[in-house]
Amino acid sequence: MAWLTCFITCHRSPSRFSYIVCITSADHISTNLDSIYWYLFYNFLRLSMIHEGWTERAKNLSHRMVAEALLRRHADPNFADDDGYTALHVICTRDKDDGLLKEFFKIVDEIPTSVQVDAKDRFGNTPLHLAAAGGKLKLVELLLKRQADPNSTNEEGLTPLHVICTRNKDDGLLKEFFKIVDEIPTSVQVDAKDRFGNTPLHLAAAGGYLILVELLLKRQADPNSTNEEGLTPLHVICTRNKDDGLLKEFFKIVDEIPTSVQVDAKDRFGNTPLHLAAAGGKLKLVELLLKRQADPNSTNEEGLTPLHVICKRDKDDGLLKEFFKIVDEIPTSVQVDAKDRFGNTPLHLAAAGGYLILVELLLKRQADPNSTNEEGLTPLHVICTRNKDDGLLKEFFKIVDEIPTSVQVDAKDRFGNTPLHLAAAGGYLILVELLLKRQADPNSTNEEGLTPLHVICKREVDGGLARQFFMVADDMKKQVRINAQDKKGNSPLHFALSRCRNRGLVEVLLHRGADPNLANEEGQTPLHLVCNKDHKDNTAYQFFEKCKFKKKPVEVDAKDKQGRTPLQLAVANLLIEEVNLLSIYGADPSKFVFPSRNDFYEALGYPRRRQFVYEGG
């Protein structure tokens, strides 16, 4: 018997005897199949399948005889390894088609023995899935003609048709696939859905494969089928990050078939294809959709129209200008003051983003500058809440003057705040100045009774904003109520003195005539507040000196509603400097009452203790 060398290897686990490669010399090949069989048997090798070995060289060396020998000795052609791979799976994953599959089927037919053409590996893939994934047309044809199921699904729910439509190239495979199934004939489910609900048309559209899209549509694929996200193929096209003419051709194809496409279909978030195209800034897609009668006023679950979506984008690339141009040409009407579920109009969103060009375009389209959202905010409020001043407010006023249209500069939000309140709260000096010059009321109060000056004094330190506030108000001949009290009776001076390191602001207020003896609803004067906290910047001294200079006597022995004097609070807070100053400026020691235990607790930040009175009997 001729010498035969067998190499036992495995492409997944070298320790397992999963397939055999036989190499020998053509001059010494044995035709005695029994001797091959017994050689393998006595080497304790299981007669399973030939997973590898049929190269051109192998065929030249008559290795077909080895496979035939094993199969004739009842080797199982359907034996699967740990990954569920049968011989048929392995053949369909090879890099080239050299006639191996054809020879395999020829041998099993001659024996004969049955082959499971739809056997699945551990991922649920059949040999047809693998052949399709590799773009092996001849193998696909052979398998289909052997009754391979073209609708079999793997664990992802993908059919071979899905697999073909996910490949990153079109080499004619799909066209031939349909040609073959028509010749057999067998039916193919062109609208089969994977586990995410995607049809082959969804996948072809996502990949931008125009030829595949055309072939599928001409096979009656449903252009309105939705996946789990509610996306149709049209949605998918509009989410792609480039416009390569696919949508234009898509519409051209459906018109030729013909079939209807729902251009206003909504995904699970309520977005239409127009919403998605607008969000991506895809001008050509927006134009095509609008010319196909897409509704420019359709709202998603957030209440956003495509116009809202355009105005939320973080850049202006001319999309809004072209959007209006297109709707004028069609023509169709656009609701420029449509409100989302929070009550925001497109103008609110453009203002919030600081998009001047969009603001201008919207205002020139008669967008209402006084429209309010759920919070009662107008676009003017929104501009005044932005954390920077980039000239938007100045241009806003310039535009409304040119149109012209009126803007309510003292409009109040649901908390009663005017734009001036918000600009003051943000410390935006230029905005405050612009609003005052537009006749904004410097004494308007919100629901807490706070004026813009109160708001300034709640946040201001050095007095710069307050000083400018008064200067502009003077220029506009507007009287500022320096002693206005909020609902708790606090004046701007109360707020200024309730904070540390605020000498500059206190000086400005006293210079403008703030009353140093005005008491709030708790009976506390500004001096009580000075003595209730260590300001660490000689605030008490400056307070007394400024009042002396302005000839405003300070009531140093004023009592709050708990009967406490400033001196009592200064002692409770251990403020030695303030105690000395109060003595210098006339505090009456005969009226001094030593602080209670609760006063000390309060000064130290602890809650006041309850006092219980025991009544014996």
TrEMBL record:
Respond yes or no to whether keyword Repeat is given for this record: yes
Superkingdom of the source? Eukaryota
Residues making up the signal peptide according to the UniProt record: none
Q: Where are the ANK repeats?
A: 123-155, 196-228, 269-301, 342-374, 415-447, 488-521
**Pfam families, per the entry:** Ank_2, Ank_5
Q: Does the keyword Repeat apply?
A: yes
Q: Which UniProt keywords apply?
A: ANK repeat, Repeat
* Protein name (record): Uncharacterized protein
What organism is listed for this UniProt entry? Trichogramma brassicae
High-level lineage: Eukaryota, Metazoa, Ecdysozoa, Arthropoda, Hexapoda
